Amino acid sequence: MTQADREKIAEEIDAASNDIASESDAQPSSTLIDTLSGQQKVAALLVALGKPAAARLLKHFTPDDLRHLSGQAHSLPNISLADFEILVRQFEDAFAEGASFSEAGLRFDNLVQETLPEDEAALIFDPSKAPKPPVESLWNIITKANIDVTQMNLVQEHPQVISYIISRLPSETAAKILMAQSATVRADLTRRRLHLRNVAPEMETILDQALRPLFLQENRAGEQAHHGQVAIILNELDKTDVDEMLASLQDLEPEDLKKIKEKLFVFDDIPRLTERARLLLFDGIAADAIITALQGADDLMKELILASLSQRTRRMVETELSSENQSIQQSDILNARRIIAQTAIKLSEQGTIDLLGQEGKS
Q1: Which domains, from first to last, does the chain contain?
Q2: 356 pLDDT higher than 70
Q3: Which residue, 9, 92, 20, is CA-closest to 50?
Q4: Start and end of every Flagellar motor switch protein FliG C-terminal domain (predicted)?
Q5: pTM of structure
Q6: Torsion-angle region of residue 177: left (phi > 0), alpha (psi -120 to 50) or beta?
């Protein structure tokens, strides 16, 4: 409470007390008032003033002030008129007929409830009832997310899950997610969308709990998010372009440049991963994406990736690669390679692998 508020309260008490006549000039001998705390005395005076005068005073108190006064009002002992005269004199006012203080706590509660708006009064007695900000829906969060971030977060989800997510999003966002997939995956997601069934609320809750932290982590990452955003842009470029960009950024602070490089990874960087990291990476990549990404790749890249696959998956990929598929578009190849690179980045952020070729955690 400011000094101006204190002076205003003093003026209000003076004005209110002038309207109340004094019945006795006797000097009571009681010392009960001397045992009261300052806040108890204020609470007693507010109750005695009544609603009209008290209403003018309460607006000068903060919610914390009123919570403290409410507690003090509930702890007030019975105050006789004689004792109250002493209290009034201490404030240099004259009160005669005061209210009974046998239920001072209840009267103070009623006073607050009658003089303040309902929502403000509720907060005085129970701060936990403060209105909570509405929780933004997962679908709104995904809609506002960068499409690359969305793709990176969804890349390891089952196609049925991705299909359901697409069904809950605005058509423009759904289209962007579809176009970020390979042609094969797009067709699969579209078929699943046509025959999608209702999802139980419990399952939607589980999905929300799994995906919400992924999409919100950029907001919590602070400075890290800025380095990550720069890295996301650079990861869209060809390897040669990335190298040229890094050369032009040499005047950055060494720590900033280091943080950006830690998040840089494109398909052509796969050879720098350790064997263990490649095994962990391709364990979560769909065979269709691997087949598409390897179209036009050099022999070294093909051998490194094939050596990272299970025997069953390797045979499937080798069979498909042996028969030339003219229907695969260059855009599909780039999308598939981007999916693999984004998965590697995600595993790195989880601490599973190290993009710089060092052993990560399992």
Answers
A1: 3-129 (no CATH), 135-220 (1.10.220.30), 265-349 (1.10.220.30)
A2: yes
A3: 20
A4: 248-355
A5: 0.41
A6: alpha
